[in-house]
Amino acid sequence: MKKDLKDIVLLGPAYPYRGGLAAFIETIAGKFRDQGKKTKIHTFTLQYPSILFPGKSQFSESSPPDNLIILRTINSVNPINWIRTGMRIKREKPDLLFMKYWLPLMAPCFGTIARITRKNGHTKVIVQLDNVIPHEKRPFDNLLTRYFIRSCDGFIYMSRQVKDDLDKFDSSKPSEFAPHPIYDLYGEPMEKNQAKAHLNLDRDTDYCLFFGFIRDYKGLDILIDAWRLLKDKGITADKKLLVAGEYYGDKEKYKEQIKVNGLENDIVLYDSFINDEDVKYFFSASSLLVQPYKTATQSGVTQIAYHFDLPMVVTDVGGLAELIPDDKVGYVTTPDAPHIAVAIEKYFLLEKENEFRSNLKTEKKRFSWENMTDKIENLYEKISR
């Protein structure tokens, strides 16, 4: 007999915390709420100790989301808190505890809460896996991840690489594939010159966008070298690289690389976290998104580009190529400067922007939030039999 899913507790980053992880939890909670389900989010009182957080702030400057119950209950480094939170959710007996997993640092906290909650004999635990094996590896990652994986009943994965990594830890529990949905919380696309004017950008220049937290694995250094190659060929006379995001690492090495390559006047830097309400200006002002990642699983930035019908150049790492049909909505290439430069050059020389934008409008229909919620419900039914 089918078991209806009526009461869901979501656990993970949410307001007042910022970023794509929080946006995912809040959006999926809102979609379930709109379907008439009881939803509640447990988020952090402490997410990362400041000594472990590489950015300037963990907190959002935007307004809180409407009509969501968000409780700040979780301290990621306090075992007593994990026990209390687990006991609280255990007593409440929701049908589902839904979590998002992205970093082994969270494994002891989330795994303990899940283990305690499941002891009520009613609540099932499903986790949406951003990563199983992290991009930036540390000692004990596998040990921590194994502890967490064993605490769950089922898994949602968004790329084949994540499923392959999951199978190294557990291939027996039920899982479902659901591609990363398209974020629709950043407003509607704007006219390009209007967005450029808001950002004080030149209306006669084409901008290639690198967007999001700047970490080593995201390959900004490769893109800077590619831009030097394009400049040497005379491709960038009417083009500039727009880099928008907060550095989660050594900012100075990128500034030195830009200087050594003589690109100070070719790269526009917005060195800060981009608030939700400002995202539309960067994607609307740009002609192309470039994701020169060295490693990846999937990317929320890709889905923002889909929302704004912005063509992309991505590298063939992780699940990115699964999201971007080559020569249809963008180009897929290898993660090195010469090949990325060739892809950017081809995009502009062949004047692909209008064609790719038109294709994006059709292609993005497969990335719906309803598909994600359906897969979660299907998985819940499987593990409840």
Compute the number of strand runs. Answer: 13
Task: Summarize model confidence as the mean pLDDT.
Answer: 91
The gyration radius over C-alpha positions equals: 21 Å
Low-confidence region ranges: none
Strand order within the widest sheet? 3-2-1-4-5-6-7
What fraction strand? 15-25%
Order of helices and strands: EHEEHEHEHEHEHEHEHEHEHEHEHHH
Instruction: Kindly name the structural category.
Output: alpha/beta
Count of separate DSSP helical elements:
14
Percent of residues in helices: 25-40%
Shape designation:
elongated
Please sum up the structure shown.
By secondary structure, the protein is of the alpha/beta class.
Walk me through what this model shows.
The structure is a single chain. This protein has 385 residues and is of the alpha/beta class. Helices cover 38% and strands 17% of the residues. It has helices spanning 20-34, 79-92, 107-118, 141-149, 160-167, 192-198, 220-232, 251-260, 279-285, 300-307, 320-323, 337-349, 353-363, 369-383, and strands spanning 7-11, 38-46, 70-75, 96-101, 124-129, 154-157, 175-177, 206-211, 239-244, 267-270, 288-291, 312-315, 330-333. The strands form two sheets. Strands 3-2-1-4-5-6-7 form a seven-stranded parallel β-sheet, sandwiched between helices. α4 links the parallel β5 (124-129) and β6. α6 (192-198) crosses α9 (279-285) and α7 (220-232) packs across α12. The longest helix is centred in the first third of the chain and has 15 residues, at 20-34. The model has no long low-confidence stretch (mean pLDDT 91).
